[in-house]
UniProtKB/TrEMBL annotation:
Keywords: Glycoprotein, Glycosidase, Hydrolase, Signal. Belongs to the glycosyl hydrolase 13 family. The keyword Signal applies. It catalyses: Hydrolysis of terminal, non-reducing (1->4)-linked alpha-D-glucose residues with release of alpha-D-glucose. GO terms for molecular function: alpha-1,4-glucosidase activity. Residues 1-17 form the signal peptide. One of its GO terms (biological process) is carbohydrate metabolic process. Residues 29-430 form the Glycosyl hydrolase family 13 catalytic domain. Its EC number is 3.2.1.20. It holds the Pfam family Alpha-amylase. It comes from the Eukaryota. SMART domains: Aamy. This is alpha-glucosidase.
């Protein structure tokens, strides 16, 4: 029997005296523009966040991660930064930020910031000086000469065929400098040149600036877009990318090309390790373990390299496999495979993480269906490591419907297509948070909000779900409490697809109760027999009961028959400690 325990998922051992808080943590992503508006201008802000910290403390989250709050013209809502050390006025002031930090500290909440180094805004002082060829800034960005157009030799076209993530050429001509600059995203977001050591130093300085303010880590945006191919290896030119052959793609579409020169370059990993050294220095200096999260949509072996190895500490790369591999139709086997995939590829001793959504993706309740809100929240919380929750997932917020007229996302506006724009739009996942059933969902006292509030706010909101006997919110909070139990914090993992529609996730730690999460994906009741989970003791009690379960918290059941209501997600714990020999 002890064999199962050898299939140990090693959780990183505690080092030094520092509390490695993030090795089992709930990190809550706040999209500041849509969380809480404190001054009635229809736009969320820092003081709004501060006012809601007690809500987050009450749920039991460990840290908040803030999407960008820095000075920006907001062509891409803060992912285009003018000055990395200033706060966007529509979000507040540095004083407001300091107040947020102080309040968070008082409540024992940590703060993680977005660190958007793929590019600056084009109104950044660095960029303006670069267009003027100021010797200190001339090489801060990726500049290249145009290529004569074969049909019109007087016209210098873009240097090569590269396409922006937001469609069309990734190159924009700058008249002042007489050259093209690279922008992998919007025109107003020139890419920084990370082959320039001064740029790297500059960005390290930004990191130290925020660490000095006491933040507990960073999330690096689009990290795999940081480096482009080194032109020194291509006769001083940036070579064309090969065609992908994607059906239906036109030369203006990002998926028209195979991005071998603009993504996933080897230098990317080293910069991640280098930045982690700075975080580790502050871990020691402030006796507060600093986390680095990295975002990269890439294949699994590439993603795992961000974790680092024996010689270099790395980051926690976001696990997007739930979002990319699972749908509302996935069965128990599909879910088990998605979990196993991450756990088996992750290097030993590293910390796993589970992501159900973010500001770039359809919301959990829309992607997986409202029926599966408890299922996906429970999985993210009960599996080992870090739970990332995007604001609203805890109450099952769905995507809002945003008309073409109200559309704000540049990725959608750039389609210039009033019919199909919604396929590219990230606005539906960014609508304001639902606090209660009052006007603007309690998000703002203003006459309008930057994006319209989703129309189901009167039934899906914090106030209603807090008052209800059972709700997604109540279940979420119960499972956060379960995450603190020793077996869930640091125990071993066993995942079972018991049949097409039932999945069980057991967590064991010798000397402690076993915790098992059980899920019924089906729309009918299923009597579940957990006897095949041998190390699970016979007598169990309900620790957390999803919105659709008949069983209540505190109910006693035996492992041979657990009656699972349709779409029920349930957490049980054993009344005996692990791991007595099975009878
Ligand atoms: C650092 O923090 C840990 C955990 O919070 C505490 O136990 C330890 O005493 C602290 N060490 C120092 C040097 O302050
Ligand atoms: C920045 O780019 C935007 C278009 O995205 C343009 O309207 C604006 O004039 C540019 N600003 C500068 C300083 O180049
Ligand atoms: C990138 O690194 C990998 C793994 O170390 C290596 O196999 C590969 O050849 C490198 N690629 C380039 C273009 O240097
Ligand atoms: C990695 O991080 C740990 C914990 O902060 C630290 O003790 C260790 O020295 C670091 N390792 C390296 C190679 O920097
Ligand atoms: C699943 O999602 C698809 C695509 O979003 C949708 O058309 C379908 O109705 C959903 N099915 C269920 C059972 O929710
Ligand atoms: C993956 C990704 O797109 N990351 C960010 C890099 O910058 C763009 C443009 O500013 C952001 O929208 C992305 O979120």
């Amino acid at each position: 029997m002890r064999k199962i325990l050898l299939l140990v998922i090693a959780t990183a051992a505690a080092v030094s005296g520092v509390d490695e808080w993030w090795h089992s943590a709930v990190i809550y992503q706040i999209y500041p523009r849509s969380f809480k508006d404190s001054n009635g201008d229809g736009i969320g802000d820092i003081n709004g966040i501060t006012s809601k910290l007690p809500y987050l403390k009450d749920i039991g989250v460990d840290a908040i991660w803030l999407s960008p709050i820095f000075l920006s013209p907001m062509f891409d809502f803060g992912y285009d930064i003018t000055d990395y050390k200033k706060i966007a006025p529509e979000y507040g002031t540095m004083e407001d930020f300091n107040k947020l930090m102080a309040e968070a500290k008082k409540l024992g909440l940590r703060v993680v910031l977005d660190y958007v180094i793929n590019h600056t805004s084009n109104d950044s002082e660095w960029f303006i000086k670069s267009t003027q060829r100021d010797p200190n800034y001339a090489d801060y960005y990726i500049w290249a000469h145009g290529k004569p157009d074969p049909k019109n030799p007087d016209y210098l076209g873009p240097p090569n065929n590269w396409v922006s993530v937001f469609r069309k050429s990734a190159w924009e001509y700058n008249v002042q400098r007489g050259q093209y600059y690279l922008h992998q995203f919007a025109v107003g977001q020139p890419d920084l040149n990370f082959r320039n050591a001064k740029v790297v130093e500059e960005m390290k300085d930004v990191l130290r600036f925020w660490l000095e303010k006491g933040v507990s880590g960073i999330r690096i945006d689009a990290v795999n877009h940081l480096y482009e191919v080194d032109p020194a290896n291509h006769d001083g030119h940036y070579p064309d990318e090969p065609l992908s052959g994607a059906p239906g793609a036109t030369p203006e579409d990002y998926n028209y090309l195979n991005h071998i020169y603009t993504k996933d370059q080897n230098e990317t990993y080293n910069i991640v390790y280098d930045l982690k050294v700075i975080l580790d220095q502050y871990t020691e200096k402030q006796n507060d373990s600093k986390i680095m999260l990295t975002e990269a949509y890439a294949d699994l072996p590439k993603i795992m390299r961000y974790y680092g190895d024996k010689n270099r500490n790395g980051s926690v790369p976001f696990n997007f496999f739930y979002m990319t591999e699972l749908t509302n139709k996935s069965n128990a086997r599909d879910i088990k495979m998605a979990i196993d995939k991450w756990m088996t590829h992750m290097p030993a001793g590293k910390v796993a993480n589970w992501v159900n959504g973010n500001h770039d993706q359809s919301r959990l309740a829309s992607k997986f269906g409202v029926d599966r809100v408890d299922v996906m929240n429970m999985l993210a919380l009960i599996l080992p490591g870090i739970t990332i929750t995007y604001q609203g997932e805890e109450i099952g917020m769905t995507d809002g419907h945003i008309s073409w007229k109200d559309t704000k996302d540049p990725q959608a506006c750039n389609t210039e297509d009033p019919v199909n724009y919604y396929k590219s739009s990230r606005d539906p996942a960014r609508t304001p948070f639902h606090w209660d059933a009052t006007a603007n969902a309690g998000f703002s006292t203003g006459s309008s909000t930057w994006l319209p509030v989703a129309d189901n706010y009167q039934t899906v909101n914090v106030a209603v779900e807090k008052a209800a006997a059972k709700s997604h919110f109540k279940f979420y909070k119960e499972v956060v409490a379960v995450k603190r139990l020793p077996a869930v914090r640091s125990g071993d993992l066993e995942v079972r697809a018991l049949c097409e529609n039932v999945i069980a996730v057991a967590r064991y730690l010798p000397g402690h109760p076993v915790v098992v999460g059980v899920i019924n994906l089906f729309d009918a009741e299923i009597p579940v027999d957990l006897n095949s989970i041998h190390l699970l003791p016979r007598d169990l009690q309900v620790e957390a009961s999803g919105a659709y379960c008949k069983l209540e918290k505190g109910d006693k059941v035996q492992k041979g028959k657990v009656t699972m209501s349709p779409h029920c997600a349930l957490v049980l714990s054993s009344t005996q400690n692990c791991c007595a020999a099975p009878k």
